Amino acid sequence: MEAAQQQLQSLTWSDAGYLAPEWILIAFTIALAVLDLFLPRRSSRSVIGWLTLGGILTSLGFVVWRMLDMASKTADAEAAGQAMSGVIRIMADSYRIDYFSSMLKIVFLVATALIVLMSLGTVKRSDIVDKGEFYYLLLPAVVGAMIMASSGDLITLYIGLELLSITTYVLVGIRKQSVQSSEAAFKYVVTGGISSALILFGMSYLYGITGATNLGAIAQGVQQHAADFPALLYVGFFFILAGLGIKIAAAPFHYWAADVYQGAPTPITAFLAVVSKGAAFAVIFRIVYNVAFYASSPEKPIADDIFLALNVMAAAAMLVGSTMALRQFNVKRLIALSGVANAGYLLVPLGLSLKGMHASNFGEFIFYLAAYLLMTIGALTVFTVISKSAGTDEVGGFSGLYYRAPWTAVAMVVFVLSLAGLPITGGFFGKLFILLGAAQSHLYWIAAIMVVSSVISYYFYFGIIRQMFMRATIDHEVQVPVTSGIVIWLCAAATVALGIVPSPVLNWINTHFSIVNDLFVR
Question: How many CB atoms lie within 10 A of CB 148?
Fold first, then answer.
């Protein structure tokens, strides 16, 4: 009876206080929807955009405050000689506030704030009629990503996944007059539905074997029954990985990405590339490192096979994304295929096996995710400015950019160098840390594929630089809105900063994050 009551633990008022970042975003969504309803039809919706940005920054402030508070309490406990995990568990450990989720939430909220700021200068009502909806629908989308990062239970995880998915379906197709946007939304709904179905089907196998939805309870059940149901475990895990492979756009599950990225509004392309992808990676981390560790028996090394599958998916994503981008001239499709390759780079830290795992794999992952955030959003912001002035989405729109807008061209060079993984940028050290981690774990073949993929990518990345500096200028004036300029230079400065002093960031992450305390649900 007591065990049943513990499992049915309700949400208390003190627990609700820990969810302040999520409540703030939900409250802003409701308030802005009502405001949009009462504003005159012809009035500007930019005020909704600025209020959306305010809600995101407020939520970000609470996440940072909670993480610093956890760090302070943990340090005080260690100074007093007491053990303290620094993890806040809510609703019978189905929702967790730890360093893992907090760091990812910071990434998601910073990315969304930059995307909103970028949109304020580039999104026009002639492009998106329902401009107010465009802004405040980003809030429930990022709430879904935050729920996915904090989930310790399959039910809360799936709720977050669907909240993120449904809102992004709407955002991709929000340009009602655009046939291309409608086609992208249709393709995204279909592939997203297939992805959700595959994930749910795989989860049903884990629940059927263990009789639990909590990840910690599933890990215990798998540990007890791995020898009895190896085939069912294989089916469950590989269906989940296939479904999440679609979400992160990793080969061979990536074919939707180029069409959807091209048809979606550019800020939503950035959101899909960074926030949606990062949230799916958070789920992979939670499931693989909670459950797959225990999914082995003397006869069937299931865990080793799961990690091998992750490495194979990473290798396929890197090679397929890089080679398919070679013949691509549309910038948004090029970013989509570059994102496929980057999904492969981000998968490498997850694919470190039980025997070769090292404690800094999450630090390598989050560092590169942060660098990927900056270079992708920065590059897409520059692209938005150029496409508005040149009237084209092709690489040729960058022709002679250095002579039309030299400082914008310099910023774009920083982003391209970071995407290519060259010094002195955050992308260089992000790839280097992942490469060294793979070598430390004796995964030399995946390290070699990383190098080959990066070398291949130089061709299409430097094609953009060649257009800016070595092609005849296009007679179109480049006007950089103030908000877009802020985003461009914030991203460029942070990218260079990560490329000059990467160690403090990585050391801080590795010092505070613990696989046992922050990732395992016990």
Answer: 28
Alpha-carbon distance of 264 to 276, in angstroms, equals 14
Contact of 209 with 221, CB cutoff 8 Å: yes
Interval 214-224: pLDDT, tens: 888 888 888 88
Kindly give the residue spans of alpha helices, DSSP state H, lying in 254-350.
255-263, 266-271, 277-291, 302-324, 331-347
Peptide bond into 287 cis (omega under 30): no
Query: Could you tell me how many helices (H) and strands (E) the chain has, helices first?
Result: 23, 2
**Rounded distance between C-alpha atoms, residue 467 and residue 81, angstroms:** 61
Residue 217: enclosing H or E segment and its boundaries?
A: helix 215-225
pLDDT of residue 6: 43
> In the prediction, which pLDDT does 424 show?
87
Q: Is the peptide bond before 306 cis (omega within 30 degrees of 0)?
A: no
Provide φ and ψ at 233, rounded to 5°: -65, -40
308-326 burial, b at 16+ Cβ within 10 Å, e below that, comes to ebbbebbbbbbbbbbebbe
3-state secondary structure of 337: helix
pLDDT in tens, 294-327: 666 555 678 888 888 999 999 999 999 999 999 8
Mean pLDDT for 178-203 is 92
The terminus-to-terminus CA distance of the chain in angstroms comes to: 21
Does residue 15 sit in helix, strand or coil? helix
The residues, any chain, with a CB within 8 Å of residue 80's CB and separated by 6 or more, are none
Query: CA-CA distance, 442 to 39, in Å (whole number)?
Result: 60
Total-model pTM: 0.92
80 CB neighbour count, 10 Å cutoff: 8
